[in-house]
Prior knowledge:
The structure holds two protein chains of two kinds.
Chain A: E1 3-12, E2 15-25, E3 30-35, H1 41-48, E4 56-61, E5 64-66, H2 71-76, E6 79-82, H3 94-99, H4 113-127, H5 142-154, E7 160-164, H6 172-187, E8 191-196, H7 199-205, E9 208-213, E10 216-221, H8 227-235, E11 253-263, E12 269-279, E13 283-287, H9 294-301, E14 309-314, E15 317-318, H10 324-330, E16 332-335, H11 350-354, E17 364-365, E18 368-369, H12 371-384, H13 401-413, E19 419-423, H14 431-446, E20 451-454, H15 458-464, E21 467-472, E22 475-481, H16 486-493, E23 496-497, H17 500-505
Parallel strand pairs in A: 3-8, 3-9, 6-7, 7-8, 13-20, 13-21, 16-19, 19-20
Antiparallel strand pairs in A: 1-2, 1-4, 4-5, 9-10, 11-12, 11-14, 14-15, 17-18, 21-22
Chain B: E1 8-9, H1 24-40, E2 48-53, E3 63-68, H2 69-92, H3 100-118, E4 125-126, H4 127-154, H5 161-179, H6 182-206, H7 211-236, H8 238-241, E5 249-251, H9 261-266, E6 267-269, H10 270-288, H11 290-300, H12 302-307, H13 312-331, H14 350-360, H15 365-388, H16 394-412
Parallel strand pairs in B: 2-4
Antiparallel strand pairs in B: 2-3, 5-6
Helix pairs in contact in B: 1-2, 1-3, 2-3, 4-10, 4-11, 4-13, 4-14, 4-15, 5-6, 5-7, 5-13, 5-14, 6-7, 6-13, 10-11, 11-13, 14-15, 14-16, 15-16
Amino acid sequence: MKLELREVTKKFGDFTANDKISITVEEGQIHALLGENGAGKSTLMNVLYGLYQPDGGEILLDGKPVAFAGPGDAMAAGIGMVHQHFMLIPVFTVAENVVMGHEPTGPFGIIDVPKAREIVREISERFGFEVDPDAYVETLPVGVQQRVEIIKALSRQAKVLILDEPTAVLTPQETDELMQIMRQLKSQGTSIVFITHKLREVQEVADTITVIRRGKVVGEAAPTATQEELASMMVGRAVEMEVEKSPAKEGDVALSVGGLSLVERSGRALLEDISFDVRAGEILAVAGVQGNGQTELAETLMGLRRATAGSIRLDGQELADKNVHEIIDFGVGYIPEDRSKDGAIEEFSIAENLVLNQTRGEFSKHGSLRMGLIQKHSKELVEAYDIRTGSSNAELDTLSGGNQQKVVVARELSRNLKLLLAAQPTRGVDVGSIEFIHQQIVAERDKGTPVVIISTELDEVKALADRIAVMYRGRFVGIVPADTSREDLGLMMAGIMPGEKEAANE
Amino acid sequence: MSEQSTMKRIELREPHVLAPISWKNPIIYSVLTFISLVIIFFLNSDAASKFVIDTGTTGIPLISFELPTQLTVVSMTILEAVLAAVSWLLTSRREKNGVWLPIVFGLAFVVAFLTAAVGGNEQSLPVTSLLTGALFLSTPLIFGALSGCICEHVGVINVAIEGQLLMGAFLAAVVGSVTRNPWLGLICAPLAGAFLGALLALFAVRYWVDHIIVGVVLNVLATGLTSYLFSTVLSDNSELFQSAVKLPTWPIPLLSQIPVLGPVLFNQNVLVYVMYIAVILLQILMFKSRWGLRMRACGEHPKAADTVGIKVNTTRIRNTILGGAIAGLGGAFFTVANGLIFAKDMSSGRGYIALAAMILGAWTPRGAVAAALLFGFADNLQNVLSVMGVAIPSQFMLMAPYLITVLAVAGLVGKVRAPAMEGVAYKG
């Protein structure tokens, strides 16, 4: 089926998320939609899928204009979507999730479970998936959950399949498998819209590439275009792909974590026996696929969760039994992974956010805030960290994602740190800000601060790390040098330790 | 792949750091055992406890027996102590306590308590009518809990059950009285509940008001409205509006002849039979049908439901109204099922107990019935014992059902999970 979008426009208030976007997806083609976070890719696809109503333009299927009042209409017309955040119900079985909305039923509307299982089996056999129709979705690994989403879309006879950032949650090997599946779907005549910001994947699998920046189509590219070309189209200027970084000048061991474990009451281990050292002036990057205990590791190090066992020693001081404010005051800087939940208050001003965890110190006197000092402080930081805003008294949520993140980074790095802990420091941040934040983190390292970066983006890990630890199901698979190949890191992210030593022994 | 063989796969093994043990269960059992032990010291050593099992219908001989009070209580306490010890042992070995342990322990405690309570009393404890009344009194709780199950699974917290029961009771009484027909009253009760359910849906789903606040406000509205009408319209025309009508009690042929259980289960009011059907139907349909699947999808992950073409807010509104209607039907219990006229605030907090029953029953109709029966039993035990003139202060007996509710909900709720997105508005 051929899909055409003509001058589709979508506005949220004054903000134009999609500005007259026109795209044509030919039948049996993989069409990549490339753009930074916040460029408007997902908005466009939500318009196409009937979740948002467009403010202008039209959608054509095989040359005929269509209008979708809701996702039900879009599905009926043959459009399927695999969302970035899976639209699966964790407490339902695979079969229930797949048939939901078009259930085969017997008398009294009782669901025909054997029929539902059959639907799942038929499609999974066609693509060589191994998916148990009776498994509860919450028990499945994310890679399998994604396949359930694909089965769900195909069970509705989708002719156009939209994949929204499908590789964000996958290991490199799972990503390769997904590429295979995409090619297989294509050979069976399914058109695919592949939304991503990862250049490598686009080059590998796309037939056509449309680049979107700030809600507008900025151009088309062939998959033969180089990464530099694609990146500069995406960002609008030449981009440094590598962070300039001198070799680490390592000092003594500063942070020493031993046997750190975190076990839930149910007996499930979220962290297990994690031990590592970080030297002064060194960046240890913790890599791994999302959801393998990275969040819990950061929260345990910060005292947000109480470790079940183990020790966290920083400059000889035990932190495992300290609470969050003691840890902050001791000199641990923390950039949390989701600033909309932790670390910043969107309704507070930039100036207030910049002193959020320092109000007990120099910024208050006799229980009241020293407004003059706070203003002066914020002006300095806004300048130094290039935070793009009209006024430091503007509310934080008036800033773009990248500038909001710079506020958090500025606050943490402006203190005297004994340790910097940064979880996903550039998630949802534009490329320009990513470069800047990376430079700041490296500068902090060069001041002799030990740094722990937790990131699910392999590019970020490779760019910053002096050493790399890989996490899998709450454990460290291993700690390896920064020049370890992407393939080996990928294996480690799936829990396999590339065993050169074992090979030598055999 | 030949390379694979040289690689070391990180295998998942049992975690060697274990979660801290929760000692909640053994502590609860030990405390209850201690209470039994204390009771022993207040017993008269040669007292006997009389029980009678009647068949519910006259003319058939009654079975009555006596138990030596002290011996029975002592042996039950020993049994409790053994079970508590087993629980300590199992818990220390990180094993589950199982289902049988709480059931046997509960029975032992109830037997010990009953024996002690009626020890030395001239009258016999009527076991059959104790159970029949327990089932009867649990009827509004079960309807209320079913309403709660439906609403919460679809994502709406229904605190307005109390008001729905009250409005149901009111309309049933008034319609029944005006038409002199209890059946018409029974039919109108759900309408009153549905009206309140519709208001809840309007504010909670359409206008995103906090569900609990709307619920409480609706309860106040129901109390105020019915009290006002009661003291004005109803009192002025008591002839017309305040004549009691009663639904018939239908003994089911054959089934009601079964000893003990027959009269308890099958010599009941029509509303109780409607309840049986409602429980069975909902238990099946909620977890096996298209209606149930779509409804629960809206409470677990509304966005996911939306992306497969399910109209989330429409589903929520319809099912909230349905839930209200079911609670309204339960309200008929207070008036036409009992043959009583309407009285101010006659639901007296049962709607909240129904919510507790729903939580204790892990959001399933089946579980809610079990929990509601427990509360109904405590309620009726209080009635029966106070009729027998048992020397326990009546205030304590009145407290008992609520105390059990608090303990049960706080202490015994295990690993149950509420619908993930209940009480969260879906803004599409």
